[in-house]
Structure formats: structure tokens, C-alpha cells
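Components:
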Amino acid sequence: MEFLRGAAVVGQSGGPTAAINATLAGVIDGYFREKNGSGAVTGLYGMKNGIEGLLKERLCNLGEIFAAPDGTIDEEKKQLLINTPAAALGSCRNKLPKPADDPAFYENLISIFKKYDIRYFFYIGGNDSMDTVAKLSEYLKTSDYKMRAIGIPKTIDNDLTGTDHTPGYGSAAKFIATTMQEIVRDCAVYTTKAVTIVEIMGRDAGWLTAAAGLPKLGPDYVYLPEVPFDMDKFYADIEVAFTRHPNIVIAVSEGVRFADGRYVGEGTQTGVADAFGHKYLSGTGKALELAVKEKFGCKVRSIELNLPQRCAAHLASQTDLDESVATGRNGIEAAVSGLTGSMVSMVRSEGDYAITYEVSEISKIANAVRSVPRDYINEAGNNVNEKCLAYIRPLIQGEVAPKYVDGLPVHFVIE
Amino acid sequence: MEFLRGAAVVGQSGGPTAAINATLAGVIDGYFREKNGSGAVTGLYGMKNGIEGLLKERLCNLGEIFAAPDGTIDEEKKQLLINTPAAALGSCRNKLPKPADDPAFYENLISIFKKYDIRYFFYIGGNDSMDTVAKLSEYLKTSDYKMRAIGIPKTIDNDLTGTDHTPGYGSAAKFIATTMQEIVRDCAVYTTKAVTIVEIMGRDAGWLTAAAGLPKLGPDYVYLPEVPFDMDKFYADIEVAFTRHPNIVIAVSEGVRFADGRYVGEGTQTGVADAFGHKYLSGTGKALELAVKEKFGCKVRSIELNLPQRCAAHLASQTDLDESVATGRNGIEAAVSGLTGSMVSMVRSEGDYAITYEVSEISKIANAVRSVPRDYINEAGNNVNEKCLAYIRPLIQGEVAPKYVDGLPVHFVIE
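Structure:
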């Protein structure tokens, strides 16, 4: 494969996670290794707010920001970045046109790349971001400009195909499992009948909600969007749980739907769709709260775990952060080795948990969704089973030790 | 003071916190010290669900549960209890009758105490729990039965008088400050105008919401119930913040009220029905979300921090846990030394932060509320000032290191 020398640019896209900056740190680390090793990567720019900022040439010089005096990476800054939630470069939700529909868009992009001698493009994100890499790669096949584009996965939703799991998911799962365990303890203190419904993120896939099943002292039921939601069965489940104890805790995905396809939270939607046509859901927990209150007349409350699910860096999974750094570093290595149009993917070994890093062809990954398999869910459809938990458990292992000053974690902010 | 020998009983009451079990651990630790030291305290029972369980003689033998083979406290169990959120003994919200109104109620209580030779009564809780101790103490003055009753404060609300602060507050404040900092990072990633409103617990006092002001990279505004809420000023504040950046984050107490005394969250309806045809009543955050959406037409969301504020033991303040243990231990010591009708209180030293433990007369404490002083709030009434932060900051210092197994904190459950 041809040796390609030039600068690299990296962007973050889509919803933030507690681990996407660890992936960025991995890319930065990989850059310093290549700069000082093969010499292929001569500089590293960060796109501010992803493609949106790249188009406006809002770039920062990560190679300078993270350089130690000796020309290697500043390890302290790197570590702070690893433990900082959300997207330090900013994010966007832009969707690129198809190359055939708007070649001028790509010609403009290429002119920006040329201006900065950018030969390597790294995009960290979920489905939509992989779509961006796929389209850019498709265009590059027709261009004289030599350049390689690599997608690096991140999404708390864990719904990308082509990888065992996605960086970001393990930290979200650890937060959800820990918080559910704490909520169950909190709810157990009174003797009066009460139902607490905890709504968990996940529009299409139930991976996040499944993590609520991890604690031994966990919720009574876990409802995923992969199983049609039935109100009568739901009420019957509650009746059964009340025979065991007065305090019922239920984990439910925001994305649960009735058999006819309607979202349980439908009608409480804002009606606003995002750039990709996704509808924002809100209110599944609230809808069920009101229904249960009417049916059982007992105390009922709903809790949305909300943004902390994706930004609680103080409770990130060390395994997830380590793997996120590794995917970033592997992205650089893959590109330097000659790959393009690919996504870094994680392959799980048989037996004891271990991950190897490979690449998948990105055009096959973009816009596909990986759901929780039916055989990860119990027969009654109201909980996950041990097969599912055995899949998730290794991903939440290890506690982080972020730097605290004055009682609060220190975050690294790229101005 | 007369040497009083007999068993002790301890209960937890009111809303759970991340530190109330640390206080219980302090009481248990104090018991083992006295049992093996002065010999005054001969046994330790736990009331299941506070007074409610005591009346039904639902007691557990904490002296047995926590005994190491050598007769001292089992340090491992003690440490697990310290790091377990909520109330390990269960809680209740019972309010006792006035002794003059219902002496039979107290005669019944005394008969239970006699049955178990209970001479020491410890009640861990907030305002209502101190009221319980005050009433029992009042009755005991008129009784032949020799017994001492001590209140040990806990409330995340920090609104008890007679103590510099309350055990439980520091951990809640650390959670709120850390989570606000993470939410601010999360919200900063997009360039589109957006307002995020975070609703924080505290119906009457703004101490919890004030903690949102701790991070340097914190919310734009912090609104406490101590200042009348004005919609026009609120809108004007948002206008000003938009001149600085597109992503506004606001912390607001659930208890903010308009000048006429109406709660901001009162009687608000979304007007949107859910799948079941319910219309809902919304909270303060939701009410403000809808108002801001209508006024500014931008993306607006509201987040309720909800139960994790009081049960996120994984992020407790080590200072808070240490002080909670100490208040429990001091409760036992105070009772053995002859005190009754008292609450353990914390006194802050001048200069460098340090706490000494004293007692306050409980009848003066019960049912009084301590608010955030006006001079802890800026002139505009839309944020806390450094005087306030300097008061809170020492209380959130120190990170806990709970035991984790399989990626999750281990909780100690008293069956």
C-alpha cells in the first residue's frame, strides 16, 4: 500500500458520551506515535463541531495543544481528556448529501483538505457519522485527491453492526446499573405500596435498558423495545410483584411500543424530528406512571435518567475508556496502513473476555441497527436473562479515578 | 449524672440519603465502644421502618448482626453499611401525637421499651424526626421510666437549625455539582441555540440548588426559592446569556415561587394528552421549559435530577460520610454521658474547616427551617455568590471508594 504523508483531521459527531473524548485521546495518541514513528501523519487538526465546523474551517491544532515539550503527547492533558465527558471538539448532526446528488459539496470539502494538506480523515460517531464516512469514502474513489477516511464507532446505544459493542455503551451501562441499584435501595425504605418507573434511553434498541438488569438487587422488571409492550401483561406483572414486596421498581426503555407500532409515550412527543427524521421521544415513563396510578391507586412516580446516562464521566467504565482509547489509536494505525472506507470494530474472544481490534467495511454498517436478540430476553418478555447479562457484564468492569480538585472532577476544555 | 445501664434502639426516619447509613454505622460503632467500655449500653436493636416498626416490635438485633467474633464491630460490614445509600433499617413518615393529647400512645411505647430493657433511644432524621424525639423526651419527663432520647440529624435539604449543616447534604451537594458540571459539558457540544433547565430538589430551602453553582464551568443561572421568581427577569436573563453562548444551562429549585406565593410548577399542564388520554401536571422544570419554548422558539429541555440526588452513594462526599459516622457515635456518647432531649449538632470552626460535635436542645430545633441567607445570593437574585460557595465547598471534599464487585458497588442489606 502506498505510503501517504500528510496531516490528519478528526471530528466528533452525534450525541455526546462519557467515552467519546477517550476515543479522541486515542486518535491524538496515535497521531503522536505516527508522527514520531512512521512519519506518515504530519499534523492533527480537530474539527470544531464536526463536519459543520470543517466546512467553515473552524479547526484547532490538536498536534500543538497536546504536545509535550519533547514532541510526544502531554500525558496529563491526555488523561484529563479521557475523563472528560461529552465532545471536547463539539459535535453536530449534519447529514451529508449523496456524492452523486451534490458533487460540488465534496469538491469544496476536498479544497479545504488540500489547503491544510489533510490526507487522513477520522470521524468518531454513531450510525449517522458512519454514513458521513461512507459517503466521503465513496466520493474519494472518484477523486484524484489521495486521502483515507476512517470511522471510529461511539454510541451509548450499542446499536451499531459490525462490532461486538460500541465505545460509550459500557460507561452508560455502568451508570444505569449503578443508579438502578441505588434507586431500588431508596425505594425499598417505606412499607406503603409504591411503583417507581425508571425511563431509560434507547429509541430503537434496548441495550441501555438491559443494563438495568445487571444488579442482583435490581428492578422487578425490565421492558425493552424489542418486545411489543402489552398493558394487560404489564398490569399483571405489577400484581405479581406486589405479592412479593410493596415497593416495585420498573425499568423501561423510552422506545417501547405497542403491538400496533405506536410508542407507549406517543402523544407526549414534541412532534419535532431531527435532521435524520428521527422523532424525539419523551414521556414513556410519565405515560406509564399515570396509567398505573389510575389502575392501582397507589403511589406512583416516574424518573427519567436523562442526560447523565451519557455524560456521567465520574462513573465511567474503565474497560470502556480503555477500549475507547484503543479504537482511536487503531483508527490511526488502520489509515496509515492503507485502509479507507472502514470502521474500527471490536471483536470479542471466546472464553475469557478480551477484545481484538479489526476493521469493517463502513458502507455495510451505516444505517443498520443492531437490536437486543430475542434470546437475550426472558420468555415472558419482561426481563433480560443471564445470556444478556453475561454479554454486558465485562463492559462495565473497572472504576475510573478522575482527578478531583475542590471536590469536583477536572474536565479538559478545548477552547 | 446517673449511670444508666440498658439496651439501645435506633431508627431511621424521613427521606433516605446517601449518608444516613453512615450515621447508623456511627451509632453501631458507638454502641460497641460503650458495650466494651463503660458497659452502659448492653445491646442495640434496630427499628424496622422507624417508629412504625417499633410499635409493631419489628426489631432487628444490630448488636448481633454487626458483631465480629471478638465482640467488637465487624469492620467490613460497617464499611459496607457506610457506603450503602437509603435507609438500611427502612424508614417511615409517622408523626407522633402530642403527649398531652394521647398519653396511652406513649404508655404503649414505654411498655415496649421495658420489654426489651431499652434505655436509650436514637432517631436519625430531619425535622419530623426531631419532632418525634422532642415529643418522646417531653413525655419521658413525666414518666418513672428512666430513659434517654437523642436525635441525630440527617437531611439532604440542609434546612435544620441548630447545626452548621446536616449530614447527607454534602453528598447530595457533591452529586448535584458534579452532575451539573457534566450536563454543562454535554450541552456545550452543539452550536444551535438551546436552553436546558435542571430542576433540583428543595421545596422550601435552596441549599441543594445552591450547590449547582459550585463548578467553575457551571450553569448560567441558579434560581433559589429564597428569591421570588419573576418571569420577565428570567426571560431577560436568558437573553443576556444568549449573547455569550448558544447553550444555556439553568439550575432551578423545585420550590421557586412567584411574588404572590404561587409555585412556578403549580397547576401547569402541557395540554398534550398521552396514549391513555391523560393530561399531565408538570413540575417546575417542565413549566419553565414550555414557557421558554414559547418565548424563544428554540430547543428547550428540562431535566429533573430526581432520586439520585439523595441516593447516589457512589459519588458521596467522604467528608459527609465521616461526619455522619461521627454524629452517630457522638449521639451514643451524649446519651451515655447523661443527655436526653437533645440533637447532636455540628459547629464549624473559624478559619480552616473543622467540625466539633455538640448538642442542641431538640425542642428548639424541631419544625424550624433554615433558609439560604439573602447575602449568599447575588444582588440580581439569579445566582449564588462566593460567600455561599465558600460555605458549601468544604462539605463536598473527598471521594469515596466503595467496594465494587462485578463493576457495581456492593450494598449492605439488613434483611
